[in-house]
Amino acid sequence: MNSLYIFTVKLQNLCVLARKAHFDYDKASVFAASESLITKLLAQQNIPAKAIENLYLIRYHINASLGYDCLNNLSMIEHLNEADKLTEELTSIIEKITEFDKDNIISKLKNKIQDKFTINSLLNKLP
Fold it and tell me: Rounded to whole angstroms, how far apart are CA atoms 91 and 8?
């Protein structure tokens, strides 16, 4: 279940990237990544109805902000603000339904990154 929290962190990162996407290629990349991530989240078991609702709304707001859905009288910035708000709410929901230690997950992620760099540096030293 801890992976749900990691998905929400990645979704928050995509909201940030959507704000920075100015070129069509950047927008298409964020669109594809958010679609893929949200589809994976929706496939998870035991997600509360409110979380599912938030996922669909986050998808809509990100897509609209990138120009892949109707704006419906909101500006692109307003859509991104809504996506941010809903993502924070989703994270809160996920934190409530999972029994996890956020610091432990962050520590594990840092260790994986460190291990990868250590392995790469060792491989680079080989003749």
Answer: 6
Distances in Å between the Cα of 19 and the Cα atoms of 4, 42, 47, 64, 91 are 23, 24, 28, 12, 19
Measure the CA–CA gap between 41 and 35, rounded to whole angstroms: 10
User: Which pTM value belongs to this model?
Assistant: 0.73
Please say whether the beta carbons of 55 and 15 come within 8 A.
no
37, 11 Cβ separation under 8 angstroms: yes
Closest CA to 58 of 90, 29, 36: 90
* Residue 118 per-residue DSSP state: H
pLDDT on residue 47: 85
DSSP codes of every residue in 32-46: HHHHHHHHHHHTSSS
Q: Residue 1: which pLDDT band, with cuts at 50, 70 and 90?
A: very low
